[in-house]
Amino acid sequence: MKGNFIDNLPKVYGIYTGGFIGFIIIMAIAEQMGMTAKAIGIAFVAFTVFIYALIGWLSRTAQADAYYVAGRQVPTVFNGMATAADWMSGASFVAMAGGIYFKGYGYMALLVGWTGGYVLVASLLAPYLRKFGCYTVPDFIGTRYGGNLARFSAVVVLTVASFTYVTAQINATGTIASVALDIPFQYAVYVGLISILLCSMLGGMRGVTWTQVAQYIVLIIAYLLPVFWISNKMGAGFFPHFMLADEVARIGELEQQFGFVKNAAADLKTVPKGLAGITKAHSAVNATPWAFISLALAMMMGTASLPHVMMRYFTTPSVKAARKSVGWSLFFIFLLYSSAPMLATLSKLSLIDPNLPTGIIGKTFAEVEAIDWYQNWNQANLMFISDFNGNGTLELNEFFMGGKAVVLATPEIAGLPYVISGLVAAGGMAAAMSTADGLILAIANAISHDVYYKIIDPKAETAKRLLVARVLLVVIGFAGATIAAMEIQGILGSVIWAFDFAMSGLFFPLVLGVWWKRANRQGAVAGMLGGLIAGAWYLIWVRTGGSGFLGITQLTFGIFGSAVSLVLMVVVSLMTAEPDKATQKMVDDVRVPSGKTILGKSH
Amino acid sequence: MSNQQKHWEKTRGLLFITLAIWFVFSIGIFLFGAEMNEVTGPFGYPWTYWFTCQGSLGAFVILIFWFANRQEKIDEEFGFSEREDE
Lengths: 603, 86
Known about the structure:
The structure holds two protein chains of two kinds.
Chain A: H1 9-32, H2 37-58, H3 64-69, H4 76-87, H5 90-103, H6 109-132, H7 137-145, H8 148-181, H9 185-200, H10 204-233, H11 240-243, H12 245-258, H13 265-269, E1 275-276, H14 289-303, H15 307-310, H16 319-337, H17 340-352, H18 365-369, H19 372-379, E2 383-385, E3 399-402, H20 405-413, H21 418-456, H22 462-485, H23 491-515, H24 521-543, H25 557-575, H26 581-590
Antiparallel strand pairs in A: 1-3, 2-3
Chain B: H1 3-26, H2 33-36, H3 47-77
């Protein structure tokens, strides 16, 4: 190929996409010729992980700016794809449609929150941080406010938020690897971890960028193909997004007909852990405005404070490109997020509508227990039925399912070939791996650049800095995997906590650093540490039986944390001396796109 | 007022407009979620349901591109846009 790599990107990824589709077709043919379901699952996961590892190896580098910010030459659209993969985690891919399936409208606050936050990223932060020319988020805090304490506080908040997040992603990688490769979860977690490290260790941000683009392509095909296929197969509509209104209305009708019967506590005890029944209306407004809005708001402010997302915009060639790139990121995220409620609708209707051949509600228990897919998923501990009222037929309140099953099992329930289930496993793996990579890199870079190089040993040579960065990457990865293997918390809960931690400590120090010249070091340190401590205190208080106030729950504790952070930051800033002339000049320079970056090309 | 101050004034104005539109689609309409869901909206979905799964999400995408274009115009007007060789 002529020309350099960047110019050839559309061609390279075009060939890659074609190759991947070719692989799906080969697998489909192999299935017809008698390849087993297990072999197909292994082939999908092994093939895609091998490709990512190959990209990681080809992107190896020994330069600081390539390792930390991919040489700042990632084009707008490709950075959008990489950010979308970085953003959409195992939670988005595997758990979100399930959440909507069970909780309906109240849960869809996450859809609004996880997209609306990008408006804040584009308008308040990304272009200015790009102009700053930093390598990491604490790099901005440390230079804007000055002093090692401010820099270190930012590293602390970043580590708490990202580490909470990353254990959930390694957990998701392990879950999928254990199902697809048929090995115990405790080992599968480390298989997942090694796959993750193969992408990031040699190439740092450069390696992660180009694998994330590849992972986005896999995950979006794996999500959209089944949604369209199922919709067409059920006769629900050729383009589900525009054509499911009748299905949504039909679910409402059936809910009225069945009613939401409350189960006795003793009956519920017999249901395996982690499984749930449908207890909330699908499309009716079933949450108070504040419950919906507070969750959306917490997720939006958290989005604008999460360092692994912010650092993706450090890799664009210009300030202008950073802004546009945020738009592209959200466009690529939109493709998946707008499909999740459609998948939930199709999945729910195909199970509960007695008029459909796949519907199980109203059938006798003997009939349901004889169905192949019910036996498979019951064995995998993701489905459960029990005749509470003893009338012999299955009622809506007697059917329980795991959240993951909506994405993982629906293709099989709808009667799609197994090759689609293999594809979905590869997609889930891609989603969890890409997010884990971004997070581990964010933590390792912050500690290696901001703590080791900027605070401990400012004279270290590039080779030594990058060695430290790589060692940290492995150490943090293994620490995350060890905690993930203990299975302390669910995937979705810990992801939401990560957003709350990030917004408690970082939202206002970042935003006011650009938009309020008067903000100074003392204020920022008070805001970061005070916000983080207040948020953590509220979480512990509510978890240990505290009643909470203003309707703020353990999922939205960031609202309290960030409010404390804002008050502390403003009050302490105003009580202490204003920043010196040089700092004020620096803020002025950040606000215009033209001219040199604040920090040098290599620093 | 210096050129740079005028540029910042306009940039801030654009920020407030952007945040106002963002507020409407992310918070404002959901204050009336229950009332709005009684009415049939685009493609036959109830209005609130449609906003949560498509409408607001799409509005955010369009809003960011619109914001990026407006900000580029402001930067050009005051001579602060980046040169290609930088």
